[in-house]
Amino acid sequence: MRTATVAVIVGIFATGSAARAQDILHGRRLALEVCATCHAVLAGQNRSPVAEAPSFEAVAATPGMTAMALNVWLTAQSHPTMPNIILSPTDVQDVSAYILSLE
């Protein structure tokens, strides 16, 4: 019984926030709702609506691009070339996971 209890507790922790941070479909929905005004957010889209805004595929293909780098960029307070969009930490993780899935 003790082993079963430990296994359940380990299972609960293993399926916690790390699993939630990888919600690529939610990230895709957010990208379409929030980012697509300026960026090409879908696979195969070459041109962004705003010429200076890189496509999400181009961002994903940037050498050294990581989830951490995207999270920092998306949570920084101000970017002169981007509107000040406020996303929850979970939303940022999901959008980052979606962008990286396009590589």
From TrEMBL:
UniProt cross-references to Pfam families, sorted A to Z: Cytochrom_C
Keywords assigned by UniProt, alphabetized: Heme, Iron, Metal-binding
InterPro entries tied to this protein: Cyt_c-like_dom, Cyt_c-like_dom_sf
A molecular function (GO) term: electron transfer activity
Domain Cytochrome c: 22-103
Keyword Acetylation found: no
Transmembrane parts of this sequence: none
Name recorded for this polypeptide: Cytochrome c domain-containing protein
Organism: Rhizobium azibense
